[in-house]
Each structure stands twice: as structure tokens, then as C-alpha cells.
């Protein structure tokens, strides 16, 4: 890893973030680390993770530093990365009692497709950095949990391989490249292989500054889905993140709202737009005729100091006025987070890093456990808040900072 400063602050004050992985053990040491985690007094307490947050440390132990940093990192000072989770912590739940919750039903639908709970798998790149089976394992885990996986265009298993991995409803995430013909080809391959929607990621005209990747001179695996389609000559290979260089050469930074029409013309699939954070853009998205909106800041990897998605969810929901479904991702780590997002008007949430950490720590079974843990927590939250079904979760079940403010004046 380079020790050159990558920002002004680190010139004066070395950022300990880059020190913490020094001498990190590899996969073989995970079991030893788990053994050490036994309770000092009770001794034999279980060292298996009991919540999805605990998978992160296991993943850190299992992964080479460069890959852990790529998965975990956010943009610049990582203010938004922390905020994505903290914004959930500022919302409280207003439970109702003496409601019959002997049966709790978390099932719902997205674009008409039934899922067991409103928790989807967000598109994340390069799952083979976690384990050799890559997205095939993730796809099987999502199918076992009866939910929808959104496959990243930048998957390390191809669109076709994932399509034939198992029978399940899947969506495909697309970027629009300068080479429109390549984006069109990807969308058409996805449609031909049974993916049910296109998720257009709109927040990446260029890549955000992920300083850990810059320090690590992040090496990015070859793009499986672009095999045979393009050969990119990455300039300045000795400097910074290769992913950033690659992405900035590929992305069409001139993309505009008018171009949604072009996307419509090359696919008959529904289009969800991912990366909306304001009511202005939510209104434009509806006007542009999209079929759904994902409130997202790309897991805080693009613009630092962009708002936490859950803090702007209601603004977007109000602008959309029920015309299309609104989903959310970013910082969802607990069933209570899912509950809060639903109460503020999201139809479902997506999870990114917990899936990657589950995959790196324990393969397909790890992803299955992550999804099951969140579902179990959501079920408990619904029971304890007095909501037997998803539609019973309403705005009056949460209290936000905005709600608190008037009472303080
Ligand atoms: C390692 C990593 C790779 C990602 N790759 C993509 C991608 O290829 N396309 C995309 O639209 N979003 C990508 N994202 C963003 C996720 O779809 C999602 O918005 C984010 O991870 C949600 O936040 P969370 O990780 O806190 O759950 C990526 C996120 C991570 C952490
Ligand atoms: C070209 C970028 C693909 C991966 C990505 O979106 C991310 O790392 O956040």
C-alpha cells in the first residue's frame, strides 16, 4: 500500500484507518479469531455472529486488505458512510400494544413479483473477490430466501451464468457507457436471459474518491460481462485506483434525463432508477416515466456529505405521490431499520455490504444467514410494534427528528 498522502488532512494527521489492517490474518485465522471471541467470564458462549454487523469483522479477517477496503470503504472522509447508519439511529419506533400478532406476515410484492420479506439484494460488483463461486453463491442464497437479487453489471460471473444458476426472479443493474451500444447489448442480454427489470444507476457520472482504493492502488478484476466487447487501455496504471481510472474512461458523464427515452427504446423491461436523493429528481424521474425509484447514495461511495437515504426518504415519497414504488438502500443493518424505512414509505429496502461480508465470511450460507437474520429481526420488530402485516406499518409507527423539532420550539 502506498504511504503517500491522498488528501490535505492526512498530510498532518495520518489516518489510522489505513493502519488498522496491518498484518491482518487470512481465512485460516478466522476460526482462531472466533475462538478468542469467547466470553472472558462465561468462557464457552457461542462465537457465531448473532447479527449482521458481526459479519464485517469476520469478512475483514477472511479478505486480503485491498478487497476488504474496496467492499467496506466510502468516499473521502466517509462522513456519509457513518451517517447512513446513524440516521437510522435517530428515528424511534412508536409501538402499539394489544394487537393480535400471533401470526406475522412479512410477504410483499415488488413490481408484482412476490417476495418473502421486503429485503432485496443490492447490486454490488465483483463477488469473486469474496469467494471463488462469486455471484452464483449470492444468487442461490437470495433464491433460498425467496427474495430478488439485483445483479451488478460489474458482476464477476456473467449475466448468463447467474441466469442459469437457479430459478428465481432477478433484476439487472446497468450503467450507461460512452459506448451506448455496449450498454444496450448488456440490457438486451439481461432481458433475453429472464431478468425482470433494469436498474439504472444514475449517481455515477464518474467514480467517487475512495481513498483506501487510491492508497491500495486498487486492482480491479477484468469485467466478465464486457469480455470480448471492449478492451480498455487504462492510462496512468501506476497511480491510484485502477477501478476509478477504468470507470472514468467508461461512463457517459453527459447522460441526461432525456436519455431515459433512449433506454426505453432498447428494452421492454420496467426501469428502476437508482441514486435519487431529492424531491426535485424524484419528480423528474416520475415525469421521465420510470417504473420505480431507489433512494440511494451508492452506499456513501460517491459524493461524501450527500444525505443518508433514510433522512430524505419521506421527501421523495411525498413527491412521488404513490405513482411508482419507492425503495431504499444504504445503512440497513437491522430489522428495525427495515421497519423504519417501510414506515416512512419505502416499499422495500436493499442491502449491499452485509451480503458481501456474509459471502466473504461464510460463502453462500453466510449470505443466507444475513438475509435470515434481517428477516427474523423484522418479524420481531413487527410483532413488538403491533404490526401483523407489512401494510400495517404506517407513518405513525415512527418518530423522526422532523417530528421532534416542533415540540422543542
Ligand atoms: C463493494 C460495493 C460495490 C458496489 N457496486 C455497485 C454496482 O456495481 N452498481 C451499483 O449500482 N451499486 C453498487 N454499489 C452500491 C450498492 O448497490 C448499494 O447502493 C449500497 O451498497 C447500499 O449500502 P449498504 O452497503 O450500506 O447496504 C456497490 C456497493 C459496494 C459496497
Ligand atoms: C464501475 C463501478 C462499478 C462498481 C461500483 O459501482 C462501486 O464500486 O461502487
From TrEMBL:
EC number of the protein: 1.1.3.15
Cofactors required: FMN
One Gene Ontology biological process: hydrogen peroxide biosynthetic process
Keywords: Flavoprotein, FMN, Oxidoreductase, Peroxisome
Cellular-component GO terms for this entry: peroxisome
Pfam families: FMN_dh
One function term, GO molecular function aspect: FMN binding
Catalytic activity: 2-hydroxyhexanoate + O2 = 2-oxohexanoate + H2O2; a (2S)-2-hydroxycarboxylate + O2 = a 2-oxocarboxylate + H2O2; 2-hydroxyoctanoate + O2 = 2-oxooctanoate + H2O2
PROSITE patterns: FMN_HYDROXY_ACID_DH_1 (PS00557), FMN_HYDROXY_ACID_DH_2 (PS51349)
Enzyme class: oxidoreductase
Location of the FMN hydroxy acid dehydrogenase domain: 44-403
Origin superkingdom: Eukaryota
Localisation: Peroxisome
Similarity-based family: Belongs to the FMN-dependent alpha-hydroxy acid dehydrogenase family.
PANTHER family from the UniProt entry: PEROXISOMAL (S)-2-HYDROXYACID OXIDASE GLO3, S -2-HYDROXY-ACID OXIDASE-RELATED
Protein name: (S)-2-hydroxy-acid oxidase
Organism: Cucurbita maxima (Pumpkin)
Amino acid at each position: 500500500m502506498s504511504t503517500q498522502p491522498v488528501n490535505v488532512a492526512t498530510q498532518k494527521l495520518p489516518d489510522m484507518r489505513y493502519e488498522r489492517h496491518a498484518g491482518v490474518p487470512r481465512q485460516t485465522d478466522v476460526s482462531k479469531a472466533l475462538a478468542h471471541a469467547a466470553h472472558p467470564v462465561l468462557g464457552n458462549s457461542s462465537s457465531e455472529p448473532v447479527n449482521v454487523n458481526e459479519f464485517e469483522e469476520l469478512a475483514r479477517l477472511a479478505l486480503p486488505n485491498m478487497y476488504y477496503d474496496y467492499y467496506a470503504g466510502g468516499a473521502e472522509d466517509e462522513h456519509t458512510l457513518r451517517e447512513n447508519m446513524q440516521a437510522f439511529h435517530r428515528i424511534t419506533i412508536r409501538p402499539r400494544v394489544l394487537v393480535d400478532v400471533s401470526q406475522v406476515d412479512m410477504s410483499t410484492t415488488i413490481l408484482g413479483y412476490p417476495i418473502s420479506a421486503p429485503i432485496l439484494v443490492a447490486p454490488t460488483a465483483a463477488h469473486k473477490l469474496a469467494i471463488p463461486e462469486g455471484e452464483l453463491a449470492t444468487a442461490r442464497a437470495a433464491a433460498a430466501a425467496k427474495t430478488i437479487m439485483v445483479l451488478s453489471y460489474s458482476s464477476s460471473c456473467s449475466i448468463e451464468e447467474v441466469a442459469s444458476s437457479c430459478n428465481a426472479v432477478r433484476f439487472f443493474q446497468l450503467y450507461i457507457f460512452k459506448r451506448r451500444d455496449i450498454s444496450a447489448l448488456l440490457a438486451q442480454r439481461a432481458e433475453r436471459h429472464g431478468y425482470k427489470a433494469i436498474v439504472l444507476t444514475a449517481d455515477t457520472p464518474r467514480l467517487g474518491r475512495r481513498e483506501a482504493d487510491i492508497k491500495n492502488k486498487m486492482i480491479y478484476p477484468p469485467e466478465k460481462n464486457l469480455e470480448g466487447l471492449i478492451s480498455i487501455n487504462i492510462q496512468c496504471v501506476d497511480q491510484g485506483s485502477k477501478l476509478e481510472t477504468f470507470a472514468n474512461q467508461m461512463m457517459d458523464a453527459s447522460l441526461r434525463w432525456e436519455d431515459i427515452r433512449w433506454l426505453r427504446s432498447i428494452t421492454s423491461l420496467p426501469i428502476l432508477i437508482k441514486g435519487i436523493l431529492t424531491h426535485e429528481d424524484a419528480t423528474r424521474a416520475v415525469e421521465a416515466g420510470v417504473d420505480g425509484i431507489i433512494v440511494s447514495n451508492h452506499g456513501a461511495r460517491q459524493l461524501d456529505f450527500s444525505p443518508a437515504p433514510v433522512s430524505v426518504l419521506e421527501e421523495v415519497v411525498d413527491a412521488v405521490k404513490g405513482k411508482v414504488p419507492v425503495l431504499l438502500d444504504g445503512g440497513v443493518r437491522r430489522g428495525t431499520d427495515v421497519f423504519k424505512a417501510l414506515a416512512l414509505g419505502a416499499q422495500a429496502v436493499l442491502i449491499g455490504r452485509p451480503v458481501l461480508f456474509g459471502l466473504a465470511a461464510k460463502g453462500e450460507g453466510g449470505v443466507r444467514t444475513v438475509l435470515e437474520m434481517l428477516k427474523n429481526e423484522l418479524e420481531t420488530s413487527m410483532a413488538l410494534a403491533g404490526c401483523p402485516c407489512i401494510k400495517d406499518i404506517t407513518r405513525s409507527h415512527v418518530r423522526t427528528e422532523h417530528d421532534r423539532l416542533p415540540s422543542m420550539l
